Amino acid sequence: MILISANLGFLWTDRSLPDAIRAASEAGFDAVECHMPYEFDPVDVRRTLQETGLEMVSLNTRIGDQEGDLGVAAVPRREALARQYIDEAIDYAVAIACRNVSVVAGRTGRSSAAEVTYRQNLAYAAERAAQHGITVLIEPLNTGVAEDYHLVNIDRGIETIISVNAPNLKLMVDCFHTRKMDGDLVPVFERAMPYVGHIQFSSFPDRAEPDHGDIDYTTLLPWLVAQGFDGPFGAEYTPAGDLDAGLGWLASWKSEGEAE
Fold this sequence. Notes:
Elements: E1 4-7, H1 17-27, E2 31-33, H2 42-52, E3 58-60, H3 79-96, E4 100-102, H4 112-130, E5 135-138, H5 154-164, E6 169-174, H6 175-182, H7 185-192, E7 196-201, H8 217-226, E8 233-235, H9 248-259
Parallel strand pairs: 1-2, 1-8, 3-4, 4-5, 5-6, 6-7, 7-8
Helix pairs in contact: 1-2, 3-4, 4-5
């Protein structure tokens, strides 16, 4: 069975987080995930998750306190802030029973000093998260988001994970970013699967609904399940038009899955 999580950093962004969770439930999603939920009381968020029966699959650390920030975990001389954000994210994840925390790296130019900082902060995050059964995720982004972003391809992420050597440190693989930076997804996943903790998807190259474009998810997602991925896949896309009107792909995929 293919389970799908609604990424509320992209979907129903005009609503409060609790109301977006309810909308995802009504639309038929199996789970939800978000970016930075910190303006919302975790008690309210957890209550809504329990009300709908949905799990929050992942959330992100804050991206920073300066203009242009895109995370601080790999930024030298900002270690104290990075760990403050890590602690905050883990505490929030515990409060709402979220299984994954994505630690956002930042803009570093990919220097060797930045990688040392990154690995030290990830080791800290993994140790803290392990106390609560939480997985720490790192996500490679494409250079179109930021040319100087620290982590921009899967193999570099694998190197970081191997170096940190923490069993609860995994990759978040966004198929859009990965296709843009690493090409054909099947060989990428073939070498990355032991390190994968979460997978996100959208159409390529327009990052809209996943029912069109250069990636055939009706083939790829079942193949990934066969490879051993059992978590919900995160639908992280920008609706091409009206969000609810564009959800036909979800109903279609669910009906196909039930028919198998």
